[in-house]
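Hi everyone, sorry if this is the wrong subforum. Our group has a chain we'd like a structural model of before ordering constructs, and none of us has done structure prediction before. Sequence below.
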Amino acid sequence: MSFVVAIDGPAGAGKGTVAKILASECNLLYIDTGAMYRAIAYASLKNNIDIKDENKIVELAKNSKIEFISDKTYLDGNDISEDIRSMEVSSIVSPISSIVKLREILVEEQRNMAKSNNVVMEGRDITTVVFPSAKYKFYLDATLDERAKRRYIENKEKGMDVSLDAIKENIKARDYNDMHKEVGSLMKTDDAIYVDSTDMTIEEVVEKIKSYIEV
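Answer:
Right subforum, don't worry. Here is the predicted structure as tokens:
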């Protein structure tokens, strides 16, 4: 019987990096739900779909195939792992992920992915909506300044020239949108273990989470 390690938290808290390492060390399937919404945001841009045209975006999602293979995100067979991390995609992913019908489609896909695998799944509503009964639930957080700094360094390493202030404003806006969604808003559940990664290394965060997990 499969089980789920569910990790929620705001942008830049380190969820993706931590989840990838956990997946590798604990033999779990890593599912980045945020990448799924980013994939649809990216596809919307590529198809010149207005982000206010919810029907077209929902139809796009119905006809798109999103897969995770070797830590890469694929859309309809194409590796879009780098494309979906652009500031252009980041600036529209939060409003797109607020579309209720789109969330219903992707949540169903996420649940299907976990039916036959032990998974570590990270996002904004994993502990609250996707898997409220998950065996292991965590809320990974960090200060706004720290999260912005991490994303800035990450972008620099990828050759993306974006100012720290711009990244901070983008994250601040995403935090607000994510916490005020009609469905699937970001929040910490009472039974989720809170981990503040501000002054912790990635390795320390991984070890802390692993200390609660029995694989």
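For your construct planning: The longest strand covers residues 136-141. The chain is about 50% helix and 15% strand.
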